[in-house]
Amino acid sequence: MTSVHLLACHLFAASTAAAVTIDDFEASRLGLRGHGADGMKSEVSLVSAPDGRKGTALRLSWPNRQVIYADCSYLSQVPMTMFDAGVAGEARAWLYLGPDAQVEQFAIRLRDANEEVFQWRVKVPRGQGWREVVIPLNAAKPDGSWGPSGKVDKVIDLPVRLHGYAVTFSATDSPAGEIFIDDVSVAK
Ligand SMILES: [Ca+2]
Question: Which residue has the higher pLDDT, 101 or 124?
Answer without folding.
Answer: 124
